[in-house]
Amino acid sequence: MNLLFYASTTQDVTKRLQKVIEMVVPGKNRRICRDIQGLSQRLREPANGQRIVVLSASNRQDLSSIQSIRDLLSDDPIIIILPDRKADTISMGHSLHPRFLTYFDSDFVELAGVLDKMLKNPDSVGI
User: Fold this and answer.
1) Structural domains in the chain?
2) Which of 54, 75, 107, 116 has its CA at 20 to 30 Å from residue 122's CA atom?
3) Is residue 102 packed enough to be buried (19+ CB in 10 Å), middle (13-18) or exposed (0-12)?
4) Contact by Cβ (8 Å): 99, 118
5) Does pTM surpass 0.85?
């Protein structure tokens, strides 16, 4: 199982998120993209097996950029981290049809649990 992680910033919250991912996903199975072009390129490449995509939208502009490539995301299960809890931001996040959605102000404990379950039981989440 592979994981593709997108985060355009290296804020403290992104570093915390990356540490959570590193605890759950072995290094050889992780790929990190720092810009939307890199993410697009990775999504166009063959997945070489099953893949989970974790998207960390640092702001609404970042979320809009992610939405602009939503057709490339349709085949993979998505976990998305939103920058705020505003209704329109949440609506934009849900339009990507994530398997799990959380926020920057989260402690990411639930995310780690969900990610671990997806990795251990890919059939249970339709991967």
Assistant:
1) 2-125 (3.40.50.2300)
2) 107
3) buried
4) yes
5) yes
pLDDT tens-digit map of 27-59: 888 999 999 999 999 999 887 778 999 999 999
Residue with tokens 């605890």: 23
Output the six-digit token pair for 84. Answer: 């705020």
User: Which tokens hold the place of 54?
Assistant: 């974790």
